[in-house]
Amino acid sequence: MHTTTFPTTKVIYMNPRKNIIRMILVALGVIAICCILLSLSGCSGGGDKTAGGKTTATTGDASLIGAGSTFIYPLFSKMFSEYNKVADVKINYQSIGSGGGIQQITSKTVDFGGTDAPLNDGQSEKIGVPILHVPMASGADVLSYNLSDIKDTLKFTPDVIAGIFLGKITKWNDPALTAINPGVKLPSNSITVIHRSDGSGTTFVWTDYLAKISDEWKTKVGKGTAVNWPVGLGAKGNEGVSGMIKNTPGTIGYIELAYAFQNQMAVGQVKNQAGNFIAPSLTSITAAGNITLPPDAKVSPLIF
Predict the structure, then answer these.
(1) Helix (H) and strand (E) counts for the chain?
(2) Closest among 214, 259, 304 to 3, alpha carbons compared
């Protein structure tokens, strides 16, 4: 499987009202090592209301406010719930997408944020304080599809994936798909691509992958947390994309593996550089994430 790995990030900035607020940024990937933007304040978090009604990251009670990556939300949801039982610290994390996490950590309206892509120089400068990325977890972007009559696990090559997302392969029984799935009776239905509509680290990882496997994608679309998609329908968050795929026959899209597992959705096998079709699993993700991180923990997605 072509996969991508991402790290996590820790942000530290000086707060004129309090000593030090630490922000941690974590990033995730296609196989990705997750990064989040966490801002942990010296005595706790909580938050005060500004004149405009927004919650700001301050000290006061045993609570923290966070927002960002939907990719890592399944892990954070469980992790923070268990932590509250033993530490009596309430952590409120809003799954709004990496773009939102970066935006809120920049405006300092949260104690921590989550992102699946490391901050670039421009984003770091905008925050105005030193940023330290801290690796948190690894996960995987996977291809999920809805073909209820197909019981076999479909196989995809990089060329086929790029063709689908460029809008060049538009039918499920396209010769390019049938050739790599012999014996599978694919329908003549149209393919509907589902992608993210919000600023998304999951999208950054996926488009970085597409840019690496397709020169046409790299030239025409590029990579980023948000791009001009050639085809498809948008949905917000991994929750929205997985929900739209699950409820709409003929669709295909990219989601974090945990959402596919939780919703019992079909996921494809992807051909890797060695020519093997790899099924996404905890084993394959763990193997793909076995890399050495650089000192700043900023890792470009890797293709395996």
Answers:
(1) 10, 17
(2) 304
Helical spans, DSSP H, in the chain: 73-87, 98-106, 121-127, 158-165, 175-180, 201-213, 215-220, 237-247, 257-262, 282-288
**Do 128 and 192 fall within a single domain?**
no
Each residue of 99-118: pLDDT tens digit?
888 889 898 898 888 888 78
For residue 48, what are the domain limits? 8-140
Q: Is residue 286 part of a domain?
A: no
Whether 296 is in a domain gets the answer: no
Look at the pTM and tell me if it is higher than 0.85. Answer: no
Instruction: Please indicate, yes or no, whether residues 240 and 275 belong to a single structural domain of this protein.
Output: yes
| Cα separation of the two ends of the chain | 7
Is the same domain home to 184 and 136? no
pLDDT, tens only, 44-74: 344 444 434 444 444 456 888 999 888 889 8
